[in-house]
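so my prof wants the structure for this chain in the C-alpha cells format not the other one, which i didnt know existed until like an hour ago. anyway here's the sequence
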Amino acid sequence: MRICLVVPTNPFDRFFVQVPIDVVLAAGQLRAEGHEVMVWDQRLTDAPTAIPDPELLVIHTAIADRAQCYPLDLVPVRAAADLARQHFPRARTMAVGPHGNQLPGGTLLELEVQHVSVGEADSATVHGVRALASGVRSPVLYGNLPTSPQELLVVGNRPTPYPNLAAGDWALPAYDLIPLERYTAEVIKDGVLHPGPAGVVMAARGCTYGCTFCHLPFGNRMRTHPVDRVIKEVETQQAGGLNHQFFLDYVFGINKAFYGQLCDRLRGQGVGWVGQTRAEIVLKTDVRAWAEAGCEGMWLGAESPSVAGTGVHKRVTEQQIRDAVLKLSDAGIAPFAFVLIGLPDDEACMDDWLVDWAADIPAWFGVNQLFLRPGTSLYDDLAAGLNGGAPPATWEQVRQVTRSYREQYPADLDDQERRLMELPNYLANALTPAG
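here's what i got, hopefully its the right format
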C-alpha cells in the first residue's frame, strides 16, 4: 500500500515541535513490511512533498509526546484530516491515538474518518494497515474480541486494543522521512534555556503509579526497550544532526539496573538530554550519574504543593518536591516542574497560594488546568455526574464535562493560570530564542 501518516498541528507547538517518535517508528515498520510510506507533519509544512495519490491516510490524533495529556479539542485534528482529504480525495482514512481508543464512535463521528484502529498508536497503525490490506473494512479495527464493530460504537463498550509489537521486533524509526534538523525541545546551554534542535527517544514505556487524573497511553506496567536499541536510535538521530534528546519515559530512573546501564552507555556519547520523572525517584537516586551521562534537565510531576491531600493517589509532599528540585540543581541538572491547576480539594488552589508557591520554587515550570480525560479513573468517577447521569457519548459532551467541573470549582482557575503565566520562571517567559 501507499500510506501517508499525518501529524496535525496543536496549540502546544508554540514552545517546541518534537519528533513524532511513534509516527516514524510505525513508518519504519510499515516500510520494512513492503509498504511505500510518507510522513506529513503539518506542524512543519502545509503540503505533502512525496508519494502521489496514497491509498491510505493515517491521522494521528495525539502523537506520543501529547498522548499522556491528550487534548479534548479535536478541531485541529479534524482540520488536518480535512486538509489531507483535499489533497488525496480517493484515499481511505484511519485514525489512531487515544481518542479512538477511548471513544471510537465519537471519534469516527467528529473526524469523519472511515476507520479507527485501537491500541498504542504505533502498534495500532501497523495492525490497522495489516487488517485493511487483508480486506477488513470494519469501522473499528481492534484486537481479537468477539464483539461486533457496531456494538463498539456504543459509548461504554471499549474494544480490546491490538497487542503491542515487542520492542525488539520493530524496525528502526524512519527518521529519513522527516526533516530531523527542524525538531526542537528544551536545550540548556550555560544555564540559559532555549528551544533548540533535539530528538525524542523512549527507553521504556508505561508507569506503575496510579494517579487518578493521569492518562497512561502505554499502560501501568513498565516495559523497557533493549539498551542497544535505545543507543542506536540516539546515534541515528545524532548522525542526523541532533546532539540533544528528550527522553519521553514517564518515570526515568525507576528501574535502577536498567537506567544505570543506559546511563553507562550514554556517558561520553556527546549527547545532552532532558527527561521526566517523579520527586521520589530523584530522592532515591544518585542523580550525579545522570549528569555525568549528559542529563541537562529533568521534569518533575509536582502538580501542587498540596497534591498529597487531594485524593488523586499522588502522595508527594511539598518538602519532597523542594528537596528533589534542590538535589537536581546541586548535581548540575536544571529542574523543571509540571503544575496542575484545579485538582479536587486542592488547598493550594482553593486558598489561592498555588501561585506564590510556584513563584518561590527554584525551577522552571509549565502549567495546565485539569482536564477530565476519558481513560482516567478521575473521569470515570466524575463524568456521568457532570453529564446528567449518563456517560458522555461524544467529544463535545466530554468537553462539557470539564467545563462543568471548572464552573463548579470553588476558585477562579482562569485567574490563577493567568497569574502563573506572568511569573518569570514560567517556561514561556524563561525561554530565550536560540541563536
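also thought this was worth mentioning. Residues 395-408 form the longest helix (14 residues).
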